């Protein structure tokens, strides 16, 4: 049975017997597109012809995974030539099914296609809010038990500003909170945000996910000011998303994450680690051999192939070694002026 894994865990496994088969599947298309289904069927036949009968068990694994109708956009399935070692990784997107055979696993390609981390998205408005989740670059509404969608839901009769509030008991009605002042609305908003924080920090399903705040800058700043326990992401969407569909929110968030990652990598190389950065391949390899690499920055596959295609295999080995040592590896895209590989020492 195929083992679901991550790129980092894959790097810690023993080398596979060559050739290594890497098959990319677009699960969305496979669910409804007859042409894509035929494409995959033909690809599997090509793999069997190229590798031989020893790969039949791999073909069976692939067909089993397809039949499961997994809830992912795509999947990368990796196997050795015997089909005895089969692993799969979740993919954020695959244009159409394809495969390639290599002497070793192409870690740079896998890292480039790896999904973003999952986030909780919190839309903040003055008197209401919404929760979303970002999974595999897709945004969808998130349901949390007892979540107060509005300030009225959170504060009830304790609402001080805004609408007239009342409570009744035994035929008697009590009115309170009549003054509709901006100061009282501000207090209500702050108390509402405290309720949101208290609820989210105790929600088990969200404890390991960072929160991306979305809303007008004044709302985001207020939440940051009162927050004491939630892990907030370094990025935020500083505009109202109240009338945006999840697909549009996904575009905004994914672009912001990509821009941040690129800028972070650029700053790390040119500023943060400038005096502790190594770019010579032989030096970096010696550092890896001594387990002295803290972070590795690598250019995209296209950049490496354009500038120095002969170094690709060597760089791929470096990536595997760094990942196996739990060093952080970042792929730098659209930065052709940067070195192909840069390493930061411990």
- Which series of helices and strands comes N to C? EHEHHHEEEHEEEHEEHEHEHEHEHHEE
- Assign the CATH architecture of the largest domain: 2-Layer Sandwich
Shape: globular
Q: Which sheet architecture does the biggest sheet show?
A: 5 strands, mixed
Q: Helix content range of the residues, please?
A: 25-40%
Strand content is 15-25%
Overall average residue pLDDT: 86
Low-pLDDT sequence parts: 163-179
Number of domains: 3
What does this structure look like?
The protein has 346 residues and is α/β, with parallel strands linked by helices. The protein folds into three domains: 3-105; 119-245, Nucleotidyltransferase, domain 5; 273-345, 2-Layer Sandwich (60s Ribosomal Protein L30, Chain: A). 39% of the residues lie in helices and 24% in strands. It holds the Pfam family baeRF_family6. Residues 118-256 form the Bacterial archaeo-eukaryotic release factor family domain. This is Bacterial archaeo-eukaryotic release factor family 6 domain-containing protein. It comes from Lentilactobacillus raoultii.
């Amino acid at each position: 049975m195929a083992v679901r894994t991550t790129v980092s865990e894959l790097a810690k496994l023993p080398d596979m017997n060559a050739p290594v088969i890497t098959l990319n599947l677009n699960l969305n298309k496979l669910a409804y597109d007859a042409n894509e289904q035929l494409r995959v069927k033909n690809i599997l036949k090509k793999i069997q012809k190229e590798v031989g009968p020893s790969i039949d068990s791999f073909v069976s694994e692939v067909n089993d995974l397809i039949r499961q109708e997994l809830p992912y956009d795509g999947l990368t399935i990796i196997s050795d030539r015997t089909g005895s070692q089969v692993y799969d990784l979740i993919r954020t997107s695959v244009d159409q099914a394809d495969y390639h055979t290599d002497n070793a696993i192409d870690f740079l390609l896998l890292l480039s296609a790896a999904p973003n981390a999952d986030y909780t998205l919190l839309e903040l408005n003055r008197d209401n809010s919404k929760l979303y989740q970002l999974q595999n670059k897709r945004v969808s509404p998130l349901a949390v038990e007892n979540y107060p969608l509005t300030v009225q839901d959170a504060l009830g009769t304790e609402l001080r500003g805004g609408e007239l509030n009342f409570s009744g008991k035994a035929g008697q009605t009590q009115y309170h909170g009549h003054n509709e002042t901006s100061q009282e609305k501000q207090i209500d908003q702050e108390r509402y945000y405290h309720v949101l924080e208290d609820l989210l920090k105790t929600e088990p399903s969200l404890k390991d996910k960072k929160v991306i705040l979305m809303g007008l800058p004044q709302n985001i700043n207020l939440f940051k000011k009162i927050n004491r326990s939630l892990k907030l992401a370094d990025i935020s969407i500083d505009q109202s998303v109240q009338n945006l569909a999840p697909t549009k929110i996904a575009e905004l968030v994914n672009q912001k994450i990509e821009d941040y990652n690129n800028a972070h990598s650029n700053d790390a190389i040119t500023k943060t680690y400038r005096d502790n950065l190594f770019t010579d391949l032989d030096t970096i390899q010696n550092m890896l051999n001594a387990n002295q690499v803290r972070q590795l920055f690598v250019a995209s596959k296209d950049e490496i192939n354009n500038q120095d295609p002969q170094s690709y295999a060597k760089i791929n080995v470096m990536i595997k070694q760094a990942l196996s040592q739990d060093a952080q590896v970042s792929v730098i895209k659209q930065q052709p002026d940067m070195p192909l590989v840069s390493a930061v020492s411990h």
